[in-house]
Every structure is written in C-alpha cells, then in structure tokens.
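Human:
Focus on the backbone:
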Amino acid sequence: MESQADLLFDPESVPAAVRQHVAECDSCRAELRSLEATMALLDSWQAPEPTPWFDARMAAKMRTEREAPPAGFVERMRMRLSLGSKMELRPVAAGALALLLMIGGGTYMGLESHHSQVAAPSATVQDLQSLDENAQVFQQLSDVDSSDTGGGSTGSSTGNTF
C-alpha cells in the first residue's frame, strides 16, 4: 500500500525493483494508470458554490432549533440510542450488570445462610418435648402415687396424665 501511494506521488522514492515490476506487469501497470486517472479527476474537481439563499436558510433552521422546546427525557434517550455512539452506553451497561450480579449474589448468599441456620428451640419447647418423650414414666409414677393414697388399683391407670 505504501508503495502504491509512493508510485503515485513520488515515483523516485520507490525501489527500482518495484518500478521495474510495474513496468513489466500488465495488471500492475493498468492499476497504476487507473489510480493516476482517478487522482487527475480529483485534482480537476471543483466544489460547487453554495446558493445565495444557503446562509439565510441555515440561519432560519438554526433559529427554529434554538427556539424549540427542549425534548423530553424519553425523546433525548431515543435520539442518543439511535444516533449516538454505542460506546457511551458500555460503562452504563457494565455498571448495571455489576449491580445485578451483586444483588443476585447477595440474595443467594442470604438464602443459603437462612437455610443453613436451624433455630434452637426455646426452653419451654424443650420441656414440653421432654414431657412427651417421658409420658410413660409419668404415667407409671401417677399410678404409684394413686396406689399409695389408697386408690387400691395396682397397675391400672386412672386416666390422669400430664
């Protein structure tokens, strides 16, 4: 690429081997002639003069834009997304993703720690469980107590349980 530009603008700076190749190769010579013709056309091109009303129309359009009420938030965001560079949104997207990951990770850790911790039963609950487990012992003690008081029924239950 550098050699092609040098062939067009400064042929003497190009190595002799490259100049010789271009002189001998038909396709390279045709390409160089095509590039020279394109450059000649660009050199001869003249930019058109603006019309006499260009400045007046441009000033009127600018005045209209300045006097227009500011666009709402949604309209500004839509224009920024449709016309603006997408590079501006990358930091916002990265921040939103990081926030979502932190919220999700924190929620997951909260659920994990909640399931791993078993609440210790209170003293009252432990006492009631102890009574349920030892109901037979208390029944036998109740039978012994009732036989000592003169109930006369040995080994039978009076139906009183705790």
Q: What stands out?
A: Helices lie at 2-9, 16-24, 26-44, 54-67, 73-83, 89-116, 123-133, 135-148.
